[in-house]
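Fold Annotation — chain and its backbone

Encoding — discrete vocabulary of local shapes
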Amino acid sequence: MSDKFFFKGRQTPKPKHESYGYNTKRVAKLGTSDNPLALCVNSVEREAEIQLVIAEHQLQANIEVNSEKAENIAELDSVLNKPVTTRFDKTPKRNDPCLCGSGKKYKKCCG
């Protein structure tokens, strides 16, 4: 039953999103000013090349030039080379015109 008839006092308020696990603040995207890319290159010339790529794609990055460490631009590669969804052409339905151009229905021609 409803507690408005039997309960005298203050009801507990409904919880806010933060209190029961709903994430209202999502993680910032990689390559933005909040979460810049962390890159390491071997030379100043390579840094200039990477800066051009970053400026072209409007990204933010912290580039470290260190000839003793191995070059690490994996984060940049992952941002630039996102996987593409493969799409397939729809097969015609039975009563659609045939793809070969005969003018007949698909079921009478190539189906």
